Amino acid sequence: LELDAPCVTLFGDSFTYSEQVDDQHAWGDALARRLNCRVANYGVGGYGTDQALLRAKEIEVLGQIAILGIHPENVLRNVNQYRGFLGDNPHTFKPRFLLEPDGGLRLVPLPTLKDDELALLFTDTTAVLSHETFLPGSRYGPVMWRAPYAWSLFRGLFHPRVTARLTVGTSWGSFLAPEHITGALNLTVALASEFDREARSKGALETLVVVFTSPSAFFQHEAGAPWAQQPLIDGLHSQELRTLDIGPVFREHLKGNSICTLMRYPEACDGHYNEEGYLLVAESVAARIQ
Description:
Oligomer: single chain
Order of helices and strands: EHHEHEHEEHHHHEHHEHEEH
């Protein structure tokens, strides 16, 4: 086999990269063994769907099949410019796209801030990050600890991400509502559609969007609620994009057992997938391809 000619290419975040397992147990590696061809994995931990798309634009050869991995939490990253506002790396900025009224995508480049501009991050954020959703003090952004402190405490206790955790919900579920003020769902679907166009323009015969699942979404569904990621699946289908929803795949495999057994830290039901979880992803993707 020619090592410079992958049959499949993968793009996405840490779940695509297969964080927290060694290379041998990464699902891209397991997929290569099942397909008996090279699989090139371009997943990067912490990436949004927008960054995965930008990376795909940089790669010349995408193979016969190009796969875009999306963890539903990516909808938060897709409307974010400074990862520190999401409780992540305080030194990380990112580019993002805007969805224009005509359906086109407009790139907002990676911010490059000078020292004096960095001081404005928490005092006048819009002056340096004009397209940031998670503004400090806003409904979805960090709660600023300032007088009146009782009000700050109240806002912290009832912050959407806190209430989602306390009610066994997902931190991203509300952002997948089609009418959500951020437009995160429509933007994410548009990014996936652009990925499909980009891949096909570079010779890919098919594309596949793999939507990962999380314990919070799994528990919510087990309690009788619809799958939290379903609006994303429906949006992708509306654009005639091939999808693989890992949530139902895991549920069928587990046969009533806990999803925690497929996580890196089963006792806390946290982290990324473990070796068994990633193997299940590889097997389901291989079955879809074959």
